[in-house]
Design brief:
Blueprint lengths: L15 H20 L9 H12 L8 E2 L1 H11 L4 H12 L9 E4 L17 E4 L1 H6 L10 E3 L6 E3 L8 H4 L2 E5 L2 E5 L4 H13 L5 H4 L1 H17 L1
Antiparallel strand pairs: 1-3, 2-3, 4-5, 6-7
Helix pairs in contact: 2-3, 2-4, 3-4
């Protein structure tokens, strides 16, 4: 948030309510970028920058690197905040119990489903996951808008062009100012099937679009009931 983003009232007589409302609105909009995922790639700001940092340095699947390396690069060039938050973003993107299909491949102790934390960044290693390579082949300026980073020395993509809606596949949870989002993860095959059906017929009704999904869901519910 830059100084020029705030409203200058000078010596004009204004109501305190108006000052708070106007500046609060600006602050709220900036928190959305950090905590609410962008619908185009399903990522919040720090997740997108962590992935872009690894793409920019070519830390692709099979080329594992000490986690401290992308963390340092991330806070130096793309996300000028604490190293703990930067490392936690990489940890979250690597955990299979947090994501249906992790976008980062972690090597070492990355915590567990019970809530134990990951080992320090100097002990773990990481790379982009094999799944990431399958759903995002390349990022080109002719397809994706690039925007300047915080000090306008480098350019970063406005979003990452995935082949599938990661927002639905992995789901996400975020809390911003006066706003929250909670999207559960969905089965990859179901998401692809529904996307294909919608692409072939954009006028299709929702009941037809989700027909097979409901049928499969009913079969699963009956199976679980029989187990009980």
């Amino acid at each position: 948030m830059n100084k020029q983003d705030f409203i200058e009232h000078h010596n004009d007589e204004v109501e305190l309510h108006d000052i708070i409302q106007d500046n609060k609105k600006i602050y709220a909009l900036t928190t959305f970028k950090r905590a609410i995922p962008y619908y185009k790639d399903g990522l919040i700001e720090i997740y997108r920058r962590a992935l872009w940092c690894m793409i920019d340095n070519k830390y692709f699947y099979g080329k594992q690197i000490k986690s401290a390396s992308p963390v340092g690069e991330l806070i130096a060039k793309w996300h000028p905040h604490g190293d703990i938050a930067a490392y936690q973003s990489i940890v979250t993107l690597s955990q299979p119990w947090t994501n249906n299909h992790p976008l980062i491949r972690g090597y070492g102790n990355w915590g567990n489903v019970l809530g134990d934390p990951a080992a320090s960044m100097r002990y773990t290693e990481c790379s982009l996951s094999e799944f990431f390579g399958d759903v995002c082949e390349t990022i080109r300026a002719e397809y994706v808008d690039f925007i300047p980073n915080f000090d306008e020395k480098y350019m970063e993509p406005d979003y990452i062009p995935f082949k599938v809606p990661i927002l639905l596949v992995n789901g996400i949870f975020g809390i911003a100012d006066s706003c929250t989002v909670s999207i559960p993860p969905h089965n990859l095959n179901d998401v692809i099937m529904i996307c294909k059906r919608y692409i072939n017929n954009k006028n299709i009704r929702n009941d037809r679009l989700l027909k097979d999904f409901y049928r499969i869901f009913q079969i699963m519910v009956k199976y679980l009931i029989n187990l009980i």
